[in-house]
Secretin/TonB short N-terminal domain-containing protein (Rubrivirga marina), 943 residues
Amino acid sequence: MCLSGAASAQEAADVRLVFRGVPASEALAAIAEAGGVNVAFSTDLVGARPVWCGGAGWTAEDLLRCVTGAVGLDYVRRSTGTYVVVARVVEPVAPGAVAGLVVDAETGEPLPLAHVRLADATAVADRSGRFALAGVAPGRQVLLASFVGYRSSALRLGIAPGAVARPTIRLRPTVASTGAVVVDGIEARGASEALGADVGFEVLPERVAGAPPETETAAPLANGAPAPTSSVGGPALQPLLGVGGRTFRDGLSLQGGEAGEHALALDGAQIYEPLAIGPALGSLSPLAVDRVTVHKAGFGARHGSRLAGLIETQHVLERPADGPLAVAAEADVYAAGARLQHHAEAGRLGGDPVEVTTLVAARRSLWDVVRPASLDRALQAWNDVDPVLAAALDADGPMARERFDLHRHGSDLAFADLHVATRVRVGPLRSLQASVYRGTADVATELVALGAPVDGALDPSAPLLARDATRWTNLAATLRGEAVVSARWRVGAGARLSRHALRQRYDAVDGRDAGLDGTEAPDVLEARLGAALDALDLADNGNALDELALEADATVALGRGREVSVGAEGVVARSRFHLLSSGFGSTAFRDLDAAHTQARLAAVADARLRLGARWTVEPGLRLTARAATGDVLAEPRLAVRYDALPTDRLGPIPLAGVAARLAGGVYRQFATRVELATFGPSALVPDVAVWLPVDATVEPPSALHLAGEVLWQPSDRWAARVEGYAKALPRVYALDYGALLAADAPPPPLAAQADFLLPEHGRSVGVGARVERQSPRWAASAGLAVARTERRSDARFDGRWVPAPWAEPVRATLGLDVLAAGRRDAGLLVRARALGIWGRTWALRRAYYDVLPALGVDAVGPFALDRPEGDRLAPLLTLDVGLATTLPLGGARRAEVALDVANVLDRHDPLDWSLRPGPDGTPEAVTRDFSGIQPSLRVRVSL
C-alpha cells in the first residue's frame, strides 16, 4: 500500500497535467504531488498499465477519475480527505463506441492514416481520415489524435452506455520538413508506426519554422517555400533511407529493387514511366500531388503484390483556406502549370451536410520555348551515334569511323498532363472520390553525320541520318466510396483503370541508300538523306497495357488494440508487346508480337493486434487465383512492432525513445517489367521499360523479404534510424536477346512469354543509417546506405552472380536547411544537399552486355563483355544548393520563389561509357557525363 500526497488533506485543486502512456501508478503519484492531495493505493491493484488523461482545466479529481477508470478501478474519499483507490464494485454497463473523422483544422482536408488513441485502444484512420473504436468504457474519456506535420490534439468525450460518439478531430499544422520529405516522429502514438513507410507531402505555408517553442515537435522544419520536386511529382524522394534517387537515366530503386519492382500509384491507380531523363521529364504535376507514402520491404498484404514496394501518391483535395476558390500557378525552366481548387456546400443529405471539393490541374513542358543550356549540352553530348553498336547491327557490314563525325544534332523533349479530381463528403463519416489523370511524353532525336573527307573527297557511303522517336501516354481513373457504418465497421469499395501505351520508332540511312556520289553540298545531302529515310517503313516497337480493377474492403474493430481488415480485388489486364524489325538491324532482329489477357482474383486479410503496452503484431495474408492456370498463390506476411516504455532498460542501457519493427513474408508480382535496349544507332534513349502481365507459360516473379528497423528518438530534436533488409528473389525475368536475335529461327513471330523472357535469380542485402537534428530555425541530416544487389542466370555470364546494373553499393547523403531570416508567414530558407555514390559497375551502355553477346560478340578490343562487374564507373559526387522564400500577398494569397542550383560544383561525373576506335583503330572508352551546373528558378503564385 502506497500513500502519496501532502501531509494533510486538501481540496482538489486545478492542475496542469497531461498523461500520455504513463503507468497508472506513476500517474497517481503525480496527481497527489501536483494537486496537493493524499492518494492511497495498492501498487499490486493499480499495476503499470499506461493511461492517457489530462488537459486544460482538469482538476486533480478529474484526473483521478480518468486514471482509475482507465484501469478498471474506482476511488472513495475518506472523511480525512484522503482518496483511496479501490476495486470497482458497480454493475456492468454496456460499452460505448467512438466513430469519427480526423481533418486539417484550417482546410478541412481529411488526414489519412492519422493515429487515434483512447486509453489503451488505438485506431489508424483509413484513406479518408475515418476511424472507429469499439468497446469503450462509458464516462468521461480523453481521445488523442496525431499526424505527422501536425500538432497532436486531446479531445474530452462523454461516452454514454451503448451509444456511439461521432467527433470530428481538427489538427493544426506545425513545424514540418524541408524538402517536403518527413519521417514520422514519436508522438502520442507508438514510435514504431514511423517504421516501414516514409511519408512526404506538399509543403504548406502554415508549416513554418520559427514558431513559438511550445509548438515544436519531433518533425523537421520548413518555411512554406516551394519544395524540391522529383519526376514522380510532388516531393523529392531522394533523402529517404533505402530509396535511391533518380539520376538522368535511372528510375527510383527501393532497397536494391529494380525500378519495375515497385508500383507508382495515383489515388490507387498505377502510373507507368518507361523512361527518365533527369528533371526534364516527369509523370505527375507537383501542383496536383499532395502526399507521397513509400512502403518498403515487409509491407502489409493490403498494399498489394509487388517485389520491392509501393509509392502511393494522392491528389490535392483540400478546402481553400480563404473563400470557396483558390488558384495557383507555377513555372520553372522545365515546365509551367496551374491548379484550381473549389469547395462548395451542396445542401444536406439525411441530416448531414454535403460538401464538394474539386481540383483541376494542368502542366506543360517548356522545352520548345526555352532550353536549359546545361541540359541541352548534355543531351547533345549523349546523342551520338555509337559506331560499335551500329556496325554490329548494320546489315551491309561495318561502318567506317569517319561516318560518325557529327554535323547536326536535334533533340526534342515534351510532356503534358491533366488532373481532375473531386470529393463529395456527406457528414464526417461518408465520402465519394473520383479522379482522372492523363499524361503524355515525347522524346525524339535526329542527327546527321557527314564524315570526314579523304584526299579532298567525301566517301559517298559516309553520310548518315538517324532518327529515333519515343512517345508514351498514361491514363488513370479512379472511383471510390468510403464510410464508417458503425462503431466497429469501416467499409470501402471502388474501381480503378490504368492505360499505358508506348511506341518507339527508329531507323537510319546512309549515302548508299540515298544514292549520293560525294559531290553534294551539305543542304542537298541532308535533303536527299531525309527523303530516303521518309520512304522507309521505320522499325516499330510498342507496348500497351490496360488494367481494370474492382475492389471492396472492410475494417472491423474487435476490441481495444485489435483490428482486422479484409478485402477482395478482381483485376483484368490486357497487354500487347510488339517488335517489328522492318528497319535498321532487320537481318538479325526477329519479329515479336505477344498479346495476352490476364484475369485474377485476390482475397486479402490484415490484422493489427496489440499485445500489452509494448508489442503489436500485424499478420497478413494475400491469396491470388489466376484464371489462366487455375492455381491459387499465397503471400503470407508478418510484422512485429516494439515500443519501449519510459522505464524500460536493457541491462544498464535505457530504452526510452526506442522503437523497432521486424517484418517479412512472401511477395509476388503479376506483371513483370523488362528493359528493352534500343537497337537504333542513337544513344539518347538507350533503353525503355516494357510491362507484361505474365501469361500461362511463365510463373509470376516472386521474392522473400526480411526487414528490420530501429528508431531512437532521445528528444524532440534528435532522431536516429537504422534499417536492414535481406531479399531473395527465386524468380525474376529479363529479355532473352539470344531468342530475339536468332537469325536462323523460324519465321513466325514470337508470341509466348516463355519464348522471349529469360528466367533469373536475384538477391539483395543492405543496411542503412540516418541521423537527424532539428531546431526551430535549422535542420540537418546525414545518411549512409551500404547494399549488395546481384542477379544470376544460367544462360548468361557463365551462370555466376553478378552485380545488378542499377546497384549502388555505397550511397551517402547530407542535408542542411537554415531559416536565415523571416517570421512565421514569410522567410528565407537556405538549403543544401550532397550526394555521393560509390561502386557502380556495368559501365558500358547496357546494349554492350545484352545485345552484342547475343550476336556472338564476346569482346570489343580489350573490353570483355562477359564481366560487367569489372567495368567500374568513377564515383558520383554532387552538391545542390538553393534559396526559397514565401511572400504573403494578403489572406491566403502568397507568392513562393525558389532558386535551385543543381551540381553547383559543376562536376561532370560519368553516366556510362561508349566505345570509339582510337587513333590506331583499337577501341577505347568514351565517357558520357552528367550535365554540369544547372540553375533553375521556380515561381508559384497562389490566389
